[in-house]
Amino acid sequence: MIAVYCVSLLLLLVYSYSQIDLNLTLLQSAWFLNFQKSMIQLGYYNRQVSATIYTLIILTLFLVYFRILRNINNQKISALNVASLVLIICFVGLFSYPAFSYDFFNYLFDGRILTKYGQNPYLFKPLDFSPDTWLRFMRWTHRTYPYGPVWLMFTAPLSYIGFDKFILTVVNFKIMFVAAYVANGFIIKKIVDKIAPTKSLLAAAFYLLSPLVVLESVISPHLDSVMTTFMLLGIWSLVLKKRFYFVVNILLSAGIKFITVILLLLPAFRNLDFTKKIKLSILVLFIILVPIIAQREFYPWYILPMFGLVSLICQDYLFSRLMLSLSVGLSLSYVPFLLVGSYPNEVQIAKAVLTFLPVLLFLIYLVARRTPLQKNSKI
Q1: 8 Å CB contact between 141 and 126
Q2: For 296-335, how does the pLDDT look when each residue is reduced to its tens digit (9 = 90+)?
Q3: Would you place residue 371 in the very low, low, confident or very high pLDDT band (cuts 50, 70, 90)?
Q4: HSE of 325 in the Cβ direction (CA atoms, 13 Å)?
Q5: What pTM was computed for the model?
Q6: What is the DSSP code (8-state) at residue 198?
Q7: What is the pLDDT of residues 286-297, one digit of tens each?
Q8: 27: exposed, middle or buried (C-beta count within 10 Å: 0-12, 13-18, 19+)?
Q9: At what angle do helices 304-312 and 317-332 cross, to 10 degrees?
């Protein structure tokens, strides 16, 4: 089972290069150029095969992931086994191509505006530096900096120590995202150690081994992962009754992407226990996301903070199953694009159907079975 998970991860690492931008050459070595050419042939010119391969990899990862969680809950898998899988995931994250993250290249260039050109990215957009060769493989070059200043504080130093070298800068950013991913799992375990010690390994694995989290945190990383790190640090501080550090960490999280600022209200709900506070946080974050999703679309990385929160209460039947169902749908929502290569209305509709179909099937299952939503149901 663990071997199947590892092989699937390595296949996903290889597959990620099928989405490499046609204007980008990472290495000039002959072997890599041949590899890149064959992967581009797969991703761009054999789209049905490409989409099928991706679907099989993702479904395999989820099936094994569910089995691993069940075995952890039954104490058949040790912390060492989980740590070994996390090491493989870190390796895959460092060496994979950010296949579905156009934002990743914007993160690089936003820092570059400050460190190379000495300009304010809040005032200047990438397109203002049109002679720059990095623009050839970027999207969203027409927008100014849309994130909070804390994210710039993190990314500007990484850009600076990249010394204007593209590969080195990519590696710097990848290391940061891998570190945030590992930190999130560690913090989740420390929090649950305080609340429900027998479930701490399960909670960490629920987050760290999730195919969606792996995809959106280390393979095609998004800043929501780092935002989640500070959000979880804030929750940990709240558990330890360190109010000052709670406020600082939540403000740092909101300083990356503003949505988590609402969590500053958590201490006001003194009559709620920890589980109810986490459930309230999940619901509030999702409600805030609704108008954003309606205006744009439901991007998979949007749920990373909520996934981190659900991991803290993964023994809850309803919340854990809903999140697992949604994560399957969001992971598969890339399939229509892989088949078509663009985003016409039909692809948008297919993405929405794939995103919510697993959730709908789970809700139908609940109604059909009339399953009691017990607070401490096993995973």
Answers
A1: yes
A2: 888 999 999 999 999 999 999 999 999 999 999 999 999 9
A3: low
A4: 18
A5: 0.93
A6: G
A7: 999 999 888 888
A8: exposed
A9: 150
Is 80 exceeded by the pLDDT of residue 25? Answer: yes
Nearby residues of 345 by Cβ (< 8 Å), 6 or more positions away:
none
DSSP 33-99: HHHHHHHHHHHHH-HHHHHHHHHHHHHHHHHHHHHHHHHHHTT-S-HHHHHHHHHHHHHHHHHS--T
pLDDT (mean) for 240-258: 95
Token readout for 190 is: 């420390």
Kindly give, in sequence order, each residue whose CB lies less than 8 Å from that of residue 83, ignoring residues fewer than 6 positions away.
none
Asked if residue 40 lies in contact with residue 119, where contact means CB atoms within 8 angstroms, the answer is: no
What number of other Cβ atoms are within 10 A of residue 373's Cβ?
A: 11
pLDDT tens digits for range 216-248: 999 999 999 999 999 999 999 999 999 999 999
Q: CA-CA distance, 254 to 212, in Å (whole number)?
A: 22
301-335 b/e (C-beta count within 10 Å ≥ 16 → b): bbbbbbbbbbbbbbbbbebbbbbbbbbbbbbbbbb
- The dihedrals phi and psi of 29, each to the nearest 5 degrees, come to -65, 145
In the prediction, which pLDDT does 279 show? Answer: 96
Let me know: does 121 contact 113? Beta carbons within 8 Å: yes
CA angle 191, 194, 197 (to 5 degrees): 100
Residues in the chain: 379
Q: Could you please report the per-residue DSSP string of 350-361?
A: HHHHHHHHHHHH
The stretches of 96-140 forming alpha helices (DSSP H) are 102-115
Q: What angle do CA 292, 96, 305 make, to 5 degrees?
A: 30
> If you write DSSP's letter for every residue of 227-241 in order, what string do you get?
HHHHHHHHHHHHHTT
